[in-house]
Fold this sequence. Notes:
Layout: H1 18-23, H2 37-49, H3 55-65, H4 69-86
DNA-binding region: 28-87
Main location: nucleus
GO molecular function: DNA binding; DNA-binding transcription factor activity, RNA polymerase II-specific
Amino acid sequence: DESSGYESESAGGERAGSAAAGGSRGRQRRARTAFTSEQVCRLEKTFQRQKYLGATERRKLAAALQLSEIQIKTWFQNRRMKLKRQI
């Protein structure tokens, strides 16, 4: 039961051949992170309290969730964009 926490993922929006298209011309894209439901829940709770994380909070949250700081940073950026679209 792993998900990124975004509805669009379950909508079947996979692109046919997207991995093969960019793979032959240099760097391959990093695989999409599948967040566990516990990770998403903790990220959402943290997001409700504060929309932006400082370096210290990001480091602590990354350690607690066993994710990289970049994954935490990217998740928060994407979540803020999702909130912006909803508003």
